[in-house]
């Protein structure tokens, strides 16, 4: 009998969750272990210094959405005092400018989120749940292609200060594929954290050092910012699609709303006689995604091409389901000394600040495109857990995989690896099966980019599906995802 199933962004993240399921933990215990593990396995995506969203469905049918994303500071300082500036990241074929420094740090929420899940849904002691991450941090994780790509393209950020430089560029070059990444100071801190409890992060030595450095080095964070941070607990945004119910990220974040818009248009326009990847199918998807993102681009700035974001899903044998999407932005370049904890750069994310940098409203939860999503069947029982990284492309990527699974009845692995497109800012990106089947440019000059192979640009849509009494999972190979059955 299955004890559970995991779809995650890294094999060691999935294995951390699996260890806990084997020890008798539930999906929420396993999620905490996976969360801790991501700090080591996906350090450019996840950190105690970042933010996240969690979508929870208990075996008893309780549905809860947790916003543990980053909060803007309570007070602004004169811009002349702020450490905040551009850093150019080279992607090879293109460059992108991110903004980093102490003045880019928003109030982190991940640790508060982990503790909320533990207090309300978990069954095992935190000391047990952190063990897989401690082992990974001390004994190391082998660098894969995707992690190498992250570390290399974010060189300007990862080498900004000595502590991060020593971890990721110990010889002056990025850790190569096949080498071992270790973060021993992070292990020591996490071990200390679980002994002392959540408030240690916000009130203890780490929080005090973060506030002190922020004050002295041009940041906004104060003691009150950390003390007052709270997880926002709500019901997920819920909407119907065919005979399903889709549960996703509610406002103020925009990702779930955009997902809902795409799905509603698909429900009206998809014709049952369409064949997957036919000309009619491709053109319908192209038009719908363009319309939805055309609406959105009038109210916010969706110009961020990269997406330093990851996602995992876990379902256990009793029917508990949880999926979590997390991000550290690209990191601000600063690690809390002696902890290996890179802080976020959410106040330097153009896509989160539509009116420009430093336009943020004080003491406000930041919006996001992240959309951890659960789908219920006609009987309101769990059927699908799905999510992805990928910045503004997140809603469209999730919508396409759901469309393949629900409308074309594809198996989960086939749906996750089927071709995707994205249409935004008069730029149409097509994976191979879509090439040559799109609508030609009419009034507006449309730039068409034909990808030679499936690419990480289109996200990593790790997914779980229940069919009958069996659970199936797929890790998206575009971002070296991994599925594991226990």
Task: Note down, in words, how this protein is organized.
A hairpin with a 4-residue loop joins strand 4 (85-90) and strand 5. The protein has 486 residues and is an alpha+beta fold. The strands form six sheets. The chain has a seven-stranded antiparallel β-sheet, with helices on one face. The protein has helices spanning 11-22, 27-41, 110-121, 126-129, 131-139, 145-153, 155-158, 162-168, 184-196, 199-203, 205-217, 223-227, 255-269, 279-297, 394-407, 412-417; strands at 4-8, 51-57, 63-68, 85-90, 95-100, 141-142, 180-181, 232-234, 237-241, 244-248, 309-316, 321-327, 335-336, 341-342, 373-376, 382-387, 421-424, 427-430, 447-450, 462-467, 470-474, 482-485. It is built from 16 helices and 22 strands. The protein is globular, with a radius of gyration of 21 Å. It has a domain at 4-234 and 308-352. The longest helix is centred in the middle third of the chain and has 19 residues, at 279-297.
User: Number of helical segments?
Assistant: 16
Distance between the termini: 9 Å
Q: Largest sheet at a glance?
A: 7 strands, antiparallel
In angstroms, what is the radius of gyration? 21 Å
Strand order of the largest sheet: 8-3-2-12-11-1-22
Mean pLDDT: 93
Alpha-beta content class: alpha+beta
Enumerate the spans where pLDDT stays under 50 for 5 or more consecutive residues. 296-306
**Strand tally:** 22
- How would you sum up the global shape? globular
Task: Determine the strand fraction and express it as a percent band.
Answer: 15-25%
Please bin the fraction of helical residues.
Answer: 25-40%
């Amino acid at each position: 009998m299955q004890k559970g199933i995991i779809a995650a962004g890294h094999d060691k993240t999935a294995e951390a969750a699996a260890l806990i399921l084997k020890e008798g933990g539930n999906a929420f215990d396993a999620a905490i272990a996976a969360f801790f593990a991501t700090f080591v396995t996906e350090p450019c995506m996840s950190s105690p210094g970042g933010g996240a969203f969690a979508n929870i469905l208990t075996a008893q049918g309780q549905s809860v959405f947790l916003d543990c994303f980053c909060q803007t500071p309570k007070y602004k300082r004169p811009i002349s005092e702020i450490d905040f500036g551009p850093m150019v990241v080279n992607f090879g074929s293109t460059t992108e400018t991110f903004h980093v420094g102490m003045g880019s740090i928003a109030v982190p929420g991940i640790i508060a989120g982990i503790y909320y899940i533990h207090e309300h849904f978990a069954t095992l002691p935190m000391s047990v749940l952190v063990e897989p991450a401690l082992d990974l941090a001390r004994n190391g994780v082998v660098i894969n292609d995707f992690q190498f790509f992250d570390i290399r393209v974010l060189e300007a950020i990862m080498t900004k200060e000595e502590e991060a430089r020593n971890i990721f560029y110990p010889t002056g070059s990025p850790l190569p594929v096949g080498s071992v990444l270790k973060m021993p100071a992070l292990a020591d801190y996490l071990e200390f954290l679980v002994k002392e409890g959540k408030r240690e992060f916000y009130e203890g030595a780490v929080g005090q050092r973060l506030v002190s450095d922020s004050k002295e080095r041009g940041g906004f964070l104060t003691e009150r910012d950390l003390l007052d941070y709270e997880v926002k607990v709500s019901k997920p945004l819920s909407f119907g699609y065919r005979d399903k119910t889709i549960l996703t990220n509610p406002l103020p974040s925009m990702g779930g709303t955009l997902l809902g818009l795409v799905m509603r248009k698909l429900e009206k326009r998809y014709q049952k006689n369409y064949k997957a990847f036919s000309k009619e199918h491709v053109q319908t998807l192209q038009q719908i995604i363009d319309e939805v993102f055309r609406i959105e681009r009038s109210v916010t700035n969706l110009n961020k091409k990269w997406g330093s974001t990851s996602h995992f899903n876990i379902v256990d044998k009793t029917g508990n389901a949880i999926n979590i999407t997390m991000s550290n932005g690209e990191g601000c370049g600063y690690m809390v000394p002696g902890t290996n904890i890179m802080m976020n750069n959410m106040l330097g994310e153009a896509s989160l600040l539509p009116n420009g940098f430093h336009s943020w409203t004080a003491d406000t939860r930041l919006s996001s495109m992240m959309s951890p999503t659960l789908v219920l069947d006609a009987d309101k029982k769990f059927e699908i857990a799905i999510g992805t990284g990928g910045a503004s492309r997140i809603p469209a990527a999730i919508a396409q995989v759901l469309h393949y699974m629900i409308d074309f009845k594809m198996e989960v692995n086939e749906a996750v690896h089927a071709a995707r497109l994205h249409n935004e800012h008069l730029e149409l990106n097509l994976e191979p099966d879509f090439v040559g089947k799109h609508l030609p440019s009419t009034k507006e000059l449309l730039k068409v980019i034909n990808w030679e192979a499936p690419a990480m640009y289109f996200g990593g849509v790790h997914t779980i599906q229940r069919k009958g009494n069996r659970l199936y999972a797929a890790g998206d190979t575009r971002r070296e995802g991994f599925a594991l059955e226990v």
